[in-house]
From TrEMBL:
InterPro entries: NA-bd_OB-fold, SAM-dependent_MTases_sf, TRAM_dom, U5_MeTrfase_fam. GO terms for molecular function: methyltransferase activity. The active site is at residue 375. The keyword 4Fe-4S applies. Belongs to the class I-like SAM-binding methyltransferase superfamily. RNA M5U methyltransferase family. This is Class I SAM-dependent RNA methyltransferase.
Amino acid sequence: MTIETDITQLGADGDGIARAPDGGRLFIPGALPGERVLADMQDPRAARLVRVLRPSPDRVGPPCPLFGLCGGCALQHFARPATLAWKEALVRHALERAGFAAPPTPATHQSPPGSRRRIDLAVRRLPQGVSIGLHARRGDVIDLTACPVLDPALFALIAELRGLMQSLGALRRTGDAQVNLLDSGPDLLLATDGPLAAADRAKLADFARAHHVPRIAWRPAGSTQSPETASQTAPVRHDLSGVAVTPPPGAFLQPTRQGEAAIIAAILAGLPRRLGRKDTIIELYAGCGTLSFALARHAKVLAFEGHPDAHAALHRAAAGTRVVAERRDLNRQPVMAQHLAQAGAVVLDPPYAGAGAQMAQIIAGRPPCIIYVSCNPQALARDVAGLKDAGYTLDSLTVIDQFLWSTETEAVCVFTAPRRPRRPGR
């Protein structure tokens, strides 16, 4: 059934939302708020965009020829300022749901095209060759022949990777390739559905030398084990706030340098002014130290990280600095309230699912300042609702769009506790 309808808003996946004939919500990919469109009903809740009858003033031509096929971007047809405003609204609404009725006007940052420095690629061996790229929306791998999001140096490596993967006997049908663009050069983690034979290892070493890739690591497809280094031709190094770190293969890094700088600036601006060098900042979900060494310029940092390889990298880099790295699975063994109460500030950058049990201990500890770095507005709303009940105020908010043209958004929220009353006679 073909219908003519008005789009009222964008959904969480970037789909236009209209009213379905039965009164429910109808999701139409590619449609924008304020538009009137013609759409084919595919089921009671989804439709295919046929034609835009009245376009939004924020509709633009997508810069990538693969848009609509590749699943990496959902919003290339939406003007970048409008996308940032939409993401800002997502974060503000999340905080309002948590009880902060009037969030402060946020500072905003949007990373430019061509700045993405990490990517996780799917690899498929097909009769006509190897396809390497991202999945279509709920579909097969789309060969990544163009990408305005990626750093040009990272995109250029993909064409070379296509030939490498074609030559590997270890790639029978499926695999993947994670690439981080570090200061020392591209860092490559491969996974294949076959074992890595001696001939494959020789090909990896040749590729590494030819394309200045200091390290290539490997593990079996589907495995969560620590990868092995299959080739290393030079030291692996990445600068984090002036400290040289050797991240493990496949390490999490902020996707753009500009976004990382915006996050750090927002955190440092939110630290208590009276924080002294003898005070301690407790950092949770510290990773390899993206925030740790910047924080250490202002106070001692006790940094907790659960992933063994990330913790090991942080621990090695922290030698001789004001950062102490402790390994702890914060989901199973959260830092307890009485410890958190002694901190001058608590900084946390939890995973997509949020802080879970750790958040309850933070609230119970009532540290004077809590800085929450969020990559998921829904988890943010769930986690910080208890802060409102505990009397915290939301002092500042920064919204960061470094996953350009996607629906992902990040935010830095600075919360302060109410002042504790002085005891009589003091």
